User: What shape does this take?
Amino acid sequence: MSALATGSCPAQLPSDALNVEPALQADFLTDEPSIVPSVALPPLMDAPTELPPLHRVDQAAMPHDNLAAAPSEPQQARVSVESVPPPSSLTQAEVRQALRLSTIEGAVANVHLAITGAIGGSVFLTGFAVLLGANSLHIGMLGALPFIGQLTQFVAAYLEDRFGHRRRLVLTGTLVGRLIWAALLTLPFLALTEDTRLLTFFALLACSYAANGIAGNAWLSWMSDLVPPRRRGSYFGIRNTVATLSAMITTFLAGLTIDHFRLQGREATGYAFIFAVAVLAAIGAALLIHRQAEPPVQPKPRMRLTKMFSAPFQERPFRSFVMANVGWALVTGIASPFFFAYGLTVLGISFSTLSLTVIVTSAVSLIFNPLVGRLQDTVGSRLVLVGCMLGTVPLPLAWVVATPTNLFPIWLAAIFTGVFWPGLTQGLANVLMERAPAAHRGSAIAGYGAVTGFGTLIAGLIGGSLALWFAQIHLSLGMVTVTGLAFLFLLTSLGRIFMAAVFWRTLASP
Assistant: This one.
């Protein structure tokens, strides 16, 4: 849901980051496909690039990772467990019960998200597309589709302002978006031509992203009011940890399942099985969401849709930050959809092995998430964010130098993805919360997701076109031969260096 569907804080890393987004895409790009959170913030990056972490802090997990550093809202908008709630607010017992249910829901929802990649993609989504006949251009389109979810997050902000029922929006969006997989799992068994099958796949997947986007934005707004500001860091830290563990276990078991059925020549049946499990998890998560208490929405004057979108962009600090993120989405998004495809088709890596690389990234990120948070509190988001951005530069190159008989660079990238991507996801989320105008925070986050998502859309289409163009080109660099998709990995590394300089300058001014 860039991006929040309903589940956990942002935690998806790019393919080299094994995401990150959307996160804020939840959805942030990483260098490896990631396991995503249940509901995520609009992806701060927009498409995974290397090896994303198992759970992208739910873009529902939207705080692609950390709401703790978000500027506090006006006192009257807070739900505080430490003070006596006003008559219209929830009781302390209701808040505690809702937070417990949300933590459990994050774990259940991540079973669905880890398998389907409903926020920022997954190895199983990529493999399923290849099974249906997808080529490089189609894989690029797959990376661009999350833009639809980011665009509908803005629609969600409008619906929330108009009707005020966030739980209803979250329930409707998650059920529609996730139950679509009950139809998708039947595609390999239908008597359709390959073109018709792919067209149906992309159409249904687009509808799923759209519904998840609506749920994600409403979920973030709901959680922002439900979780007391002074408890956000500790609460989402626990929730994200639980969600990540759930995603790690799910990814590993799903990888073993697919490999088992592939050996029997029944790969389509394997996908049908794991997607059926994902659908059941979606239903379980919806039942938990239904039981969670919702704080009353603070009344706000109505705005025209055009004014709602444009108002936050009148603020220069917010506008410059969004434009920098568009650039980041472009340089990471040209390669992010292709890491898993490259591993499966060129390096011959099995699903279970790819799943393990994702698990390694997520396990490392569990260690570095709290460390990065404390470091940002000490030296500020600018230094940590740009430092981590530079740290991701060599990660895509690991895929270039790896061979079918030497996967050590991939494992190394998986480890360092878990080191550097948490700083990106948390840093971008924190800066977004700081720079989003307080008077228009909901529409600012949705607008951010829509604009940066457009960058991801363009990046995916450009990446798919370049992948076809590079397919027949070979370049020898010493002992390394670069060909096909590997050229995209070189381009994204160069682009990250440039964008690190852009962010250093952008974040220098308040």
User: Anything to note?
Assistant: Strands lie at 14-15, 30-31, 474-477, 480-483. DSSP finds 18 helices and four strands in the chain.
